[in-house]
Design brief:
Shape: globular
Radius of gyration: 23 Å
Strand content: 5-15%
CATH class of the largest domain: Mainly Alpha
Number of domains: 3
Strand order of the largest sheet: 4-3-2-5-6-7
Bound molecules: iron/sulfur/oxygen hybrid cluster, iron/sulfur cluster
Distance between the termini: 40 Å
Length: about 550
């Protein structure tokens, strides 16, 4: 196996034996095969698009299959094998639809035949990341594919709520197809930039899906303690799963707690109507082994991030949607417009003890674009009077890397006239520090999940308009982004597409950036690695 798609890859070079994430060699190889067959299907997909008949259902498949290969989403080899089988089927359907045009296609990913896992696995080494020999072309192809995985995840979340845009699906297909061609580096850079624009469109669509369905998030205090009833812990990013679970647990005596990236659900007006949505339990994803053990009741993983499951709670963990883990029960998808059936997880909860209390108190969330813009006058006055000197966007992911302590120390060391804008699980590095407020404006403005990073762009663009600036980079805003998986890659490309320069990225630069590709990003966009909290805080406050 060879995988270097996330920030925790071994020695910041590549996982070659087993993923640090827990991905086995078999699953990693199956994922490489899946991507390869998707590339083959995309070549016919392009021809069908040219003829004008692609349609949403194929797009949905491409998006869901890409999402399944995102870090920490699906560890189950049997589910990846089923996706490969389906990819072959879809490839053949697209080939038939392409008709005569399909004769022009000769790439090996298009010519492979469906086979059993045993036939296919030996081929994995021929088609993975290292199959591209030129390090710069490999770097650009993988940067593009990781951006696509992030876009696919966001498109999937919007689709679940009934919001789709065929243009986004078409881009997934066209970009996958482009990675099979001998394109010059400049063309690949162009596609990477187009991925950034598509990431903006997709995140805007997801924002519309979330706010149309659940209302605009509003400032909310979220309880961190545990109650006396048995509970179900919901993790991942899928709000529709949470909605259906809350409907089905209503009045049952079973409480529901959010975990990790599900925390922002508390701030949507829609979810406030459920008295049994009682609080948030624990911290960011990588603490889950201890926290899930202490929780004592069932856990529903709706998406990433899953950490290898301990035997002690394997019988209490359920996956659904794109998420998967061998040995964990999987709750099937909706069919015929009916809700998912959560009766099994609810029945198990009734037999479990109440959660052990981990901590007490409250945290504040719900500072997405509408809520922040409703405070715009206050914010503008605070900037004009000098009460707020700088906004620091510290969005992104948390992770196990010890150097991520950097983000806590930056938050602690920023002067009291600096405000942190955040989204994603990176916030758990500093959202319980009690950083106070500036004239009623919290110093940590939490816009929500990593899926809500678009909110931060809306806020920045609004500030640019209010201050009458011609360039977003003239705002008193600095970007100090924590990345881990491929949604963060999509967010980064989106920020670049919006013209934002001088982004700090940590805790390390991606292993998949070759020295030459990294150089291009530095020269074109002034991207820089984080250094020390002291030096970076000084530079940020000086506007550098
Ligand atoms: Fe965190 Fe995991 Fe949301 Fe990522 S839960 S790390 S950016 O997969 O998805 O922020
Ligand atoms: Fe390694 Fe990350 Fe790939 Fe997992 S996802 S195998 S940790 S690079």
């Amino acid at each position: 196996m060879f995988c270097f798609q996330c920030q925790e890859t071994v020695k910041n070079q590549g996982c070659t034996v087993r993923g640090v994430c827990g991905k086995t060699e078999e699953t990693a190889n199956l994922m490489d095969l899946l991507i390869h067959v998707l590339k083959g299907a995309s070549l016919y997909g392009e021809k069908v698009i040219e003829k004008g008949g692609f349609g949403l259902s194929y797009g949905r498949f491409f998006s869901d299959a890409l999402f399944a290969t995102l870090t920490n989403t699906n560890f189950d080899p049997s589910r990846i094998t089923s996706l490969i089988d389906k990819a072959f089927k879809i490839r053949d359907e697209l080939k038939a639809k392409a008709g005569d045009a399909s004769r022009e296609i000769s790439h090996d990913s298009a010519l492979w035949s469906a086979g059993s896992e045993g036939d296919l696995l030996p081929k994995a080494g021929m088609v993975g990341v290292l199959a591209t020999e030129n390090p710069d072309i490999r770097s650009l192809r993988e940067l593009l594919i990781y951006g696509l995985k992030g876009i696919a995840a966001y498109a999937h979340h919007a689709m679940v709520l009934g919001f789709e845009d065929e243009e986004i699906y078409r881009f997934l297909v066209e970009a996958l197809a482009a990675t099979t061609r001998d394109l010059p580096a400049d063309d690949l850079v162009g596609l990477v930039m187009k991925a950034g624009q598509t990431a903006v469109t997709t995140m805007a669509l997801l924002d519309k899906a979330n706010t149309t369905t659940y209302g605009s998030p509003e400032i909310t205090k979220v309880n961190l303690g545990a109650g006396k009833n048995p509970g179900i812990l919901v993790s991942g990013h899928d709000l529709k799963d949470l909605e259906e679970l809350l409907e089905q647990t209503k009045g049952s005596g079973v409480d529901v707690y959010t975990h990790g990236e599900m925390l922002p659900a508390h701030s949507y007006p829609f979810f406030k109507k459920y008295p049994n949505l009682v609080g948030n339990y624990g911290g960011s994803w990588w603490h889950q082994r201890e926290e899930f053990e202490a929780f004592g009741g069932p856990i529903l993983m709706t998406t990433n991030c899953i950490v290898p499951v301990k035997e002690t709670y394997l019988d209490r963990i359920f996956t659904t949607g794109t998420a998967g883990y061998p040995g964990a029960k999987h709750i099937p998808d909706r069919s015929n417009g009916k809700a998912k059936d959560f009766s099994g997880i609810i029945a198990l909860a009734r037999t479990c003890p109440a959660p052990q209390q981990l901590e007490g108190g409250e945290i504040i969330g719900g500072l997405a674009h509408d809520q922040v813009l409703s405070l715009a006058d206050k914010v503008v006055d605070a900037v004009k009077s000098g009460a707020i000197k700088r906004f620091v966007v510290m969005a992104g992911c948390d992770g196990r890397h010890k150097d991520r302590d950097y983000f806590t120390r930056v938050a602690e060391q920023l002067p009291e006239d600096a405000v942190i804008l955040t989204a994603g699980c990176a916030k758990y590095r500093y959202n319980k520090l009690g950083l106070g407020d500036i004239g009623g404006i919290p110093r940590v403005l939490d816009a929500g999940q990593c899926n809500d990073s678009y909110s931060l762009a809306v806020i920045a663009l609004k500030l640019k308009e209010v201050f009458g600036l011609d360039d977003i980079n003239k705002l008193p805003v600095s970007f100090d982004i924590a990345w881990y998986e491929q949604k963060a890659v999509a967010v980064l490309l989106a920020l670049l597409a919006l013209g934002i320069k001088g982004i700090r990225l940590g805790p390390t630069l991606p292993a998949f950036l070759s020295p030459n590709v990294a150089k291009v990003l530095v020269e074109k966009f002034d991207i820089k690695p984080v250094t020390t909290p002291e030096a970076d805080v000084a530079a940020i406050m000086a506007g550098n």
